Structure formats: structure tokens, C-alpha cells
């Protein structure tokens, strides 16, 4: 059950600047930001609570720059944004590229159907993303590469 009411909608001009600010505040991947890649969560139909995108490469796609403003966390908003991104990408756009995420919170993404990839077989773009995270967004935690599995028992 949602603790607060929110809707997940494609990002529009009205929200894109706030999304970019949120990305800077939360120190997320700020490269190649394109409004049309983003979906946003709105509370009371107008307040930006969170955002996220799927970035498309030649051989893979990536859930990227997902953030929920602190005040709105733990209401299921991050989960809904990620589920909407994946639904839109795979079902609506019928895109079959494998979807990855590079993250420091693997437990969070496991619940959403992602699995840790240990073999060195991921696409170069995803390895490059990992390198970017390690060098440009350093944190004490370890960055791991995960891939979305449509058949995950966690779904
Ligand atoms: C990670 C983030 C997007 C989660 O958003 P959220 O809306 O608070 O998360 P949800 O409410 O959808 O959480 C769903 C579940 O994940 C759990 N969870 C939330 N944050 C978590 C975290 N950092 N690590 C592990 N689990 C977490 C919740 O407890 C909840 O569990 P439940 O379903 O068993 O109750 C948000 O904390 C955030 O913006 N963090 C900073 C930016 C960031 O780390 N982005 C991810 C980049 S890869």
C-alpha cells in the first residue's frame, strides 16, 4: 500500500530543471541527460518527488540516475519509478536490450528483479559506466554490476 499518493509520468519541461538539480544534489550520473529518457514521480499531481531514466547504448541499456528526494523516501516511489522504466522500455517500446544497473545498493535492486553479474561478459558500455562510478562518484561502498532478469524469483 502506498503511504502517500503519487503518480509516475514521463518527464516534461516543467520538471526537467528540478530533475537536473536533484541529480547534482544526490551526486548521480549527470552525463548525457535527455528529458525524454526520464520518468518522474509527482506527489499531489505536481510536486516532484523522484526521477529516473533508462539510458540506451548499442548493446545494452541501463537504469540510471534514479533518485527520490529524502522527504519522500520509503514510500515505494523509487520502486515504482524503476518498474515503470522497465515496463515502458520492454513492453511499450518492445526493446529487447538487456537492462543493467551499476549500484552500491544491490539488496534494493535484487528486490526489483536484478541479479549480480560476476562474469566478465557484460557489454563494454556497462563496464565503462562502472569505471566512471568508481573514478568520478567515489563512495565507501562497492559498486556492483547487476542485470535485470525477467524471470527473477524476486519478482
Ligand atoms: C535508493 C532510492 C532511490 C530508494 O527510493 P525509495 O523511494 O526510498 O525506495 P522504496 O520506497 O521504493 O523502497 C522499496 C524497498 O527498498 C528498501 N530500501 C530503500 N532504500 C534502500 C537502500 N538504500 N538500500 C537497501 N534497501 C533499501 C525499502 O526499505 C523498501 O523495502 P520493502 O519493500 O521491503 O519495504 C533512494 O533512497 C535514493 O534516492 N537514494 C539516493 C540516490 C541513490 O542511491 N540512487 C540509486 C542509484 S543506483
Task: Tell me about this structure.
30% of the residues lie in helices and 27% in strands. It starts with 5 loop residues before the first strand and ends in a 7-residue tail after the last strand. It has one domain (6-148): Gcn5-related N-acetyltransferase (GNAT) (Aminopeptidase), CATH 3.40.630. The mean pLDDT is 94. With 155 residues, it is an alpha+beta fold. The chain contains four helices and seven strands. It has helices spanning 13-25, 77-92, 106-110, 124-136; strands spanning 6-10, 38-43, 47-56, 61-68, 99-103, 114-116, 144-148. A seven-stranded mixed beta sheet has the order 1-2-3-4-5-7-6, with helices on both faces. The longest helix has 16 residues, at 77-92. Bound molecules: coenzyme A.
Condensed summary:
With 155 residues, this protein is an alpha+beta fold.
What general form does the structure show?
globular
The biggest sheet amounts to: 7 strands, mixed
User: Percent range for helical residues?
Assistant: 25-40%
The domain tally reads 1
Gyration radius over CA: 15 Å
Q: Span from first to last CA?
A: 17 Å
Fourth-tier CATH superfamily name: Gcn5-related N-acetyltransferase (GNAT)
Bound molecules: coenzyme A
CATH topology: Aminopeptidase
How much of the residues is beta strand, in percent? 25-35%
Amino acid at each position: 500500500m502506498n503511504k502517500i499518493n503519487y503518480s509516475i509520468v514521463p518527464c516534461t519541461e516543467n520538471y526537467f530543471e528540478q530533475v537536473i538539480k536533484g541529480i547534482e544534489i544526490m551526486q548521480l550520473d549527470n552525463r548525457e541527460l535527455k528529458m525524454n529518457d526520464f520518468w518522474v514521480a509527482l506527489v499531489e499531481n505536481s510536486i516532484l518527488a523522484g526521477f529516473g531514466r533508462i539510458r540506451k547504448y548499442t548493446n545494452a541499456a541501463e537504469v540510471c540516475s534514479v533518485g527520490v528526494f529524502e522527504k519522500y523516501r520509503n514510500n515505494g516511489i523509487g520502486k515504482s519509478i524503476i518498474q515503470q522504466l522497465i515496463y515502458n522500455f520492454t513492453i511499450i517500446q518492445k526493446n529487447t536490450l538487456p537492462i543493467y544497473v551499476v549500484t552500491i545498493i544491490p539488496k534494493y535492486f535484487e528486490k526489483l528483479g536484478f541479479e549480480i553479474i560476476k562474469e566478465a561478459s557484460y557489454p563494454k558500455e556497462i563496464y565503462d559506466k562502472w569505471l566512471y562510478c568508481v573514478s568520478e562518484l567515489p563512495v565507501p561502498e562497492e559498486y556492483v554490476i547487476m542485470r535485470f532478469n525477467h524471470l527473477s524469483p524476486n519478482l
